[in-house]
Design brief:
The chain has helices at 2-36, 45-58, 65-83, 97-106, 118-126, 146-154, 188-193, 195-201, 213-220, 232-237, 285-295, 328-340; strands at 87-91, 111-115, 132-139, 143-144, 158-166, 170-173, 183-187, 206-210, 226-230, 241-244, 254-261, 271-278, 300-307, 315-322, 343-351. By secondary structure, the protein is of the alpha/beta class. Helix 2 packs antiparallel against helix 3.
Amino acid sequence: MKKELIKFRKEIDLIDREIIDLISRRGSLAKEVGSLKNDGVIYKPEREAQILASLKKYNKGPLQPESIVNIFKAIISNCRALEKKLSISFLGPLGTFSEEATKQHFGENIDGLPVNSIDEVFNHVQSDATHYGVVPVENSTEGAVSRTLDLLLLKDLKICGEITLPVHHCLISKAKTSKNIKTIYAHGQSLAQCHDWLISNMIHVEKIAVTSNAEGARLASKDINAAAIASSQAAKLYKLNMLWENIEDEAKNSTRFLVVSKDNVSRSGNDKTSIIVATKNRPGAIADLVAPFSKNKVSMTKLESRPSKIGMWEYVFFIDVEGHQSDKNVSISLQQVEKNASFMKILGSYPAS
């Protein structure tokens, strides 16, 4: 058995060295590719999506497809940084789900900039302070993030990617048990997402809404009788004990994030397109507005209304459809929608998560 173990370990060592050689070669090629790019755009979402889809298809096991994606996202992130390290703003502070989503999408080798508000994320990208921004847009339990929708309407930025992040909430504290907890800090949405659990387990404890779960963790780290609802990453960051895990009411709780930039994205082969439209206030206007999608066999995956901020009781509609705006059926549909709309803005086409 010992001889067999030594044999296998030697074989693994040889494979590891081969992998290092291949990664180094890949890094050198990435630098060469970077030197040939004329537009100065380092991050190509459609290209990275195609690479990951191809690798998942090629994978023959025993590693799961998700494991292959995780490994290659790290390789791609580090190779991309050889061309130029990307700067990405996200809703801070450190330890938020926004930071987790940013690293899930772009990898670890980035310059992440935590900011205080969703407005700041948009402003940083608009002013070229960062290359990209990551913002939450909707939660599977609590619905849309209204400020993100408003800024997509108001700002001149494009959606170039999306991230769907499973959200698992933990109760964390300096204390080792929840027996003497008198205060719980959390973002308002997280308190809502854990509403039933809190009633069942912490009904007499004061709940205080704060700007982010990470801020709640920071406050809890200063008070032995306080706790926070936050991620396991926040617990590690602020050196807090995990009192309870997965306390969200919905086991499949997830948040969708968008990546915003100034750049349009080419087709990846598995895309989504987002638009904002407005229509005249008349009977059947909405049905007429979206009819071209059905007519041209374009699947509509989202329809959300928001006050337009322009006139009393006037609304705009956020629509997501499957496909890229350059696809023939999507392009024809958008042209027909625009004819029926009083206003239309294409927010972008991007690889679907």
